[in-house]
Design goal:
Ubiquitin-like (UB roll); about 30% helix; about 450 residues; alpha/beta; 4-stranded antiparallel β-sheet; binds iron/sulfur cluster
């Protein structure tokens, strides 16, 4: 197939230390902490109380709205607390704490043949399984598979690029459980009435490409493509450009160009939820980085505290200065290791003081490297100035809302400026500014209509 390159982007050191390490199953934690918000949208609502006994796979919090999903317990045991606990996305959030009784009793799961299910039944089972985008976005999958009628979808793309340095969780999943992924892709295609499916994988994973290409021989409508190693190849808009040469318009979504993009891990979870009736209870986490003693890929029960996962991997070196959740480009620094593994925990990475010092910020020298690196054609240096000045009108004009938060600008900045943190803040404030302006315009127009 013909692939198209996207503009901008970077090539950070890959550091895929754990690429050759098969996934190890970690023991269940003594105590598991389940935040009710592990997805974009409304937090789930607890349906258990302190003292209740719960089983593995049981719903402990129900969806809080349409854009929301249930939360399930990954262990059997007793609910011992419901309250505010540290969350890996920062600050504290409501969580349900379950103490493990060591019995690992599970609820029963109802298997079904997906080929006998219509789109609504598929989406119902995806919702019941608590499935969200496992690449990090955590957008509820049943919502993503419900585009408005006027948006005709003709292509599903699975993202197996895993372009973030260090992370190898998706790589191992593709190598070890490719059938689950392709079965999930076929279910997603069925739910959307789509005939064409792609899996895009960066060329630094030739074994995964070969393995999925071999499995895909059974399916005429699925194509597995090797992609140039180029960050952020795994971003939705870049993946669509590369694979089907369509441009998502600024401020638009993949569905505007007939595409739905899902992560390979999400496809595997879709298979579990729809065909096996099993919710998300565990995930593969890459535990790595220069300060991690024994880097590994580990299958971890959701709710397991980071410190237990790190202990399982031999602990941290003495000069550890920073631990992040996710990859180094888009990951989130942790202020405590007392946070739980959640649905979006693709990695736990640890860095030394030296790594951190090398990245200490300096003044902008107006070199323009961030502009060249931006895959969305933005001017990060100018955006940072507008955000510093709280000039949301200018930030909007400079298109801050099109930023995909890939971190290419921060990475390429000689001054190691914290551009990405400022952009995240600037995007949120500009969106608020835009909303307020639109509401004011609307009420002015309504008022004028009345007079
Ligand atoms: S401005 Fe946004 S989209 Fe552009 S490189 Fe920076 S983080 Fe990526
Ligand atoms: S790359 Fe850094 S130093 Fe260069 S213009 Fe951008 S913000 Fe300034």
């Amino acid at each position: 197939m013909k692939l198209t390159a996207f503009k901008g982007g970077i090539h950070p050191a890959e550091n895929k230390i754990t690429a050759g390490m098969p996934v190890e199953q970690m023991t269940a934690p003594k105590m598991a902490v389940f935040p009710v918000s592990q997805h974009l949208g409304a937090p789930a609502k607890p349906v258990v109380k302190i003292g209740d006994r719960v089983l593995r796979g049981q719903i402990i919090a129900e969806p809080g709205g349409f854009v929301s999903v249930p939360i399930h317990s990954s262990i059997s045991g007793e609910v011992v607390a419901i309250g505010d606990f540290p969350h890996p996305l920062g600050l504290t959030m409501t969580a349900i704490v379950v103490e493990n009784d060591g019995l690992d009793e599970e609820i029963g799961y109802e298997e079904m043949d997906p080929s006998g299910l219509d789109a609504d039944a598929i989406k119902k089972r995806i919702l019941a399984g608590g499935v969200v985008g496992l690449g990090g976005a955590t957008f509820p999958t049943h919502v993503k598979l419900s585009p408005p009628k006027e948006k005709k979808i003709d292509t599903v793309i699975l993202n197996g690029a895993e372009c973030e340095p260090f992370l190898t969780a998706d790589h191992r999943l593709m190598l070890e459980q490719g059938d689950r992924i392709l079965s999930g892709l076929l279910i997603i295609m069925r739910a959307l009435g789509v005939e064409r499916g792609f899996v895009g994988i960066e060329n630094n994973k030739p074994d995964a490409i070969a393995s999925l290409q071999d499995l895909a021989k059974k399916h005429k409508n699925i194509e597995v493509a090797g992609l140039k190693v180029h960050y952020p190849q795994g971003a939705e808009k870049q993946l669509i450009k590369t694979l089907v040469n369509r441009e998502v318009p600024p401020g638009g979504l993949p569905m505007d160009v007939g595409c739905v993009v899902q992560n390979v891990g999400t496809a595997a979870a879709v298979y579990d939820a729809v065909a096996l009736g099993k919710p998300i209870m565990d995930r593969i986490v890459t535990v790595s980085g220069p300060a991690m003693k024994n880097p590994k890929n580990v299958l971890v029960r959701l709710g397991t505290p980071f410190f237990e996962v790190i202990e399982y991997c031999g602990g941290l070196s003495e000069d550890t200065a920073k631990v992040i959740m996710g990859g180094p480009m888009m990951g989130i620094a942790q202020y405590t290791l007392n946070v739980p593994v959640i649905k979006s925990t693709s990695g736990i990475l640890a860095f030394t003081k030296r790594d951190v010092d090398e990245n200490a910020p300096r003044a902008c020298i107006r070199c323009g490297k961030c502009v060249n690196a931006c895959p969305m054609g933005l001017m990060p240096n100018e955006l940072v100035k507008a955000i510093d000045n709280k000039d949301w009108e200018l930030a909007e004009k400079l298109n801050v809302l099109s930023c995909i938060e890939c971190g290419s600008c921060s990475f390429s900045c000689i001054g190691r400026r914290p551009i990405i943190q400022l952009l995240k803040y600037g995007k949120a404030e500009t969106a608020k500014f835009k909303r307020n302006r639109e509401e004011a315009e609307k009420s002015k127009a309504e008022q004028a209509g009345k007079n």
